[in-house]
Amino acid sequence: MTLRDLLSVYSTRHGLKDRTTALLSSTLDRFDAFLGRPATLDDLDDMTLARFAKWRAEDRHWRNKPPRPATVKKDIAHLSALWTHAAKKRLTRSDGVLIEHPDLPRGLVKVSLRPPKGYRLEEIDALVKAARRRRGDVGPVPAWWFWVTILQAAWQTAERIGGLLALRWRDVDLDARRITFDGATRKGGTKTIVRSITPELARLLGKHRRGDDELVWPWLEHRLPASLWISLRLLGQTAGVAVHGFHAIRKAAGSYVAAAGGDATEYLSHSDPSTTRQHYLDAGIVGGADPLDLLPKLPSERRASRPAPPPAPEPPTPARASSGPVEAGAAVGRSMAARGLACPPRAQHDALAAAAGVEPEDVGAFSRGLLEGWVSGQGDAA
């Protein structure tokens, strides 16, 4: 039995949506490429999937780039789901041996968890302003109307893009300014939510109100699904905004609700608050105390942060003789000669220089002047 035959049974029994079935089929495309033939039940074993994971991480199938680790992990999860289904149904391999449940290591593919990133308020506003300049039509509605209203609805309701594209006019109450997102068209397929919209958005939606069974935003009826993200990227270039997809609007909405003190988990219709915290709340929007500010400073940091004491005043330096060390020495020598004193020996010059206010490094010049002055003083005395 090939894995494509197994996928046909699996998708039918579990009522998978076409989009989900297409994603699983894409995984089988890569698994077939790895094997070089159509995959069968015999290929569901630990070593084969481990080798496939390594190969897939280096596979440059899309735009000559290797996939992200999250994509590899998704492919392994898809194959594991088919494998688990085969084991539950007690299917056998070609040799008649029953297929056992998968026992893959949890860390087979490691994916780093990056902080959530949502658009800032100014970025969403810039996208809406740029959308007002869109020309052309999306089926029966103007392109500018399509983009302005779907961006505002994504921001105000925080609904996923899939739920927005599946919305029909019968679930839009313009008078009450409420939108009901049917659980059957939302992720998970069960939980229905009701969200309010602003009077401005209700007024814009009313401009192109159509029949109850018509789609509000009929992109999928008139364009290729993947072109929606291409069009958003082009809109971001016009607005000067780095585009992170539609889901970043949902993250932004949840983050701003949390920053205002609201319940972001309920607003985003999550069942687990940890999902909201880990994958949706942008710390740059939510804010809060930085853990670094809560840590006490090290003693050395506290000392370094104190203002430094003022420098001690330097002791006054004796003023040099205004005429310089040579002249100062000459003046002392002439004075001693005039008093009939002998020329002092070199050992006394340091003390005489200090008394005259001469620096130690200038004693040599002082000595020369002293000798010259004493000699000249001898002539004056005669």
Describe the structure.
- The protein is about 50% helix and about 5% strand.
- It is mainly alpha-helical and about 375 residues long.
- It folds into three domains: about 5-90; about 120-285, Orthogonal Bundle (hpI Integrase, Chain A), CATH 1.10.443.10; about 325-380.
- The strands form two sheets. The protein has a three-stranded antiparallel beta sheet with strand order 3-4-5, with no helix packed on it.
- α1 runs antiparallel to α2 (about 20-35) and α5 (about 120-130) runs antiparallel to α6 (about 145-155).
- The longest helix has 20 residues, at about 70-90.
- The termini are far apart.
Give the SSE layout.
Elements: H1 3-13, H2 18-35, H3 46-58, H4 69-88, H5 121-131, E1 137-138, E2 141-142, H6 143-157, H7 161-165, E3 172-173, E4 178-181, E5 193-196, H8 199-206, H9 219-222, H10 227-239, H11 247-259, H12 264-267, H13 273-279, H14 283-286, H15 291-294, H16 299-305, H17 324-338, H18 349-355, H19 363-381
Antiparallel strand pairs: 1-2, 3-4, 4-5
Helix pairs in contact: 1-2, 3-4, 5-6, 5-10, 6-11, 17-19
Name the helicity range: 40-55%
Largest sheet: spatial strand order? 3-4-5
Percentage beta strand = under 5%
* Broad CATH class of the largest domain: Mainly Alpha
Q: Which descriptor suits the 3D outline?
A: elongated
Tell me which CATH architecture of the largest domain applies here. Answer: Orthogonal Bundle
Derived from helix and strand composition plus strand pairing, the structural class reads: mainly alpha
Topology, number of strands: 5
Distance between the termini: 136 Å
How many helical elements?
Answer: 19
CATH topology of the largest domain: hpI Integrase, Chain A
User: Whole-number average pLDDT?
Assistant: 90
What's the domain count? 3
Order of helices and strands: HHHHHEEHHEEEHHHHHHHHHHHH
CATH H-level superfamily of the largest domain: Intergrase catalytic core
Q: Can you tell me the residue ranges where pLDDT is under 50 for at least 5 consecutive residues? A: 315-322
Radius of gyration: 43 Å
Largest sheet: 3 strands, antiparallel
